Amino acid sequence: MSKKVELDQEECIGCESCVELCPEVFGFAPEVGKAYVLEGADGDSACVEEAATACPVACISVG
């Protein structure tokens, strides 16, 4: 079973670091200036933890 990845859009500042580091899991919605978790994304992807660690506001949780 894949890990669940969550991104708190209220906290997201739209820096897109997660999208740059892990485009297979995170997308960016320019109309709201926020990142989001892609539908059906694999939470076990190697880049997820790196993206969560790189988030400047720590709004990504993996578990």
Automatic annotation (TrEMBL):
Ranges where the 4Fe-4S ferredoxin-type domain occurs: 3-31
GO molecular function, one term: iron-sulfur cluster binding
Keyword Iron appears in the UniProt entry: yes
InterPro entries, A to Z: 3Fe4S_ferredoxin, 4Fe4S_Fe-S-bd, 4Fe4S_Fe_S_CS, Fe-S_cluster_ET
Transmembrane stretches, start-end: none
Pfam families membership: Fer4_13 (PF13370)
Keywords assigned by UniProt, alphabetized: Electron transport, Iron, Iron-sulfur, Metal-binding, Transport
Keyword Metal-binding: yes
Function summary: Ferredoxins are iron-sulfur proteins that transfer electrons in a wide variety of metabolic reactions.
Listed name of the protein: Ferredoxin
